[in-house]
Amino acid sequence: MNLQSSTLKVDESGERFHVQQAKQIRAYKDAGHGRSPRVSVSRRSLPA
């Protein structure tokens, strides 16, 4: 299984978004179960 992260995330910890996202990705990769998991990050742009 691979991880897809997005820029739409509710801030619950008070940390800056890029810090939260880096922690999530690091934890996911650390739990790689003997393989190198792939991670992708997407960004949405919604015109107002």
Compact description:
With 48 residues, the chain is α+β, with helices and mostly antiparallel strands. The chain has 1 helix and 2 strands. Helix 1 (17-30) links the parallel strand 1 (3-6) and strand 2.
Topology, pairings included?
Elements: E1 3-6, H1 17-30, E2 39-42
Parallel strand pairs: 1-2
Task: Describe the protein.
The longest helix has 14 residues, at 17-30. By secondary structure, the protein is of the alpha+beta class. A two-stranded parallel ribbon has the order 1-2. The chain is 29% helix and 17% strand. The mean pLDDT is 78. The protein has one helix and two strands.
How many helices? The count is 1
- Report the span from N to C terminus: 35 Å
Instruction: Spell the H/E element sequence.
Output: EHE
Cα-based radius of gyration, to the nearest Å: 13 Å
Strand content: 15-25%
| Strand arrangement across the biggest beta sheet | 1-2
Number of strands: 2
Oligomer: single chain
- Class from secondary-structure proportions: alpha+beta
Give the overall average pLDDT: 78
Q: How would you characterize the largest beta sheet?
A: 2 strands, parallel
Helix content bin: 25-40%
Shape: flat
Low-pLDDT ranges:
none
Characteristics of this structure?
48 residues, alpha+beta, two-stranded parallel ribbon, 1 helix, 29% helix
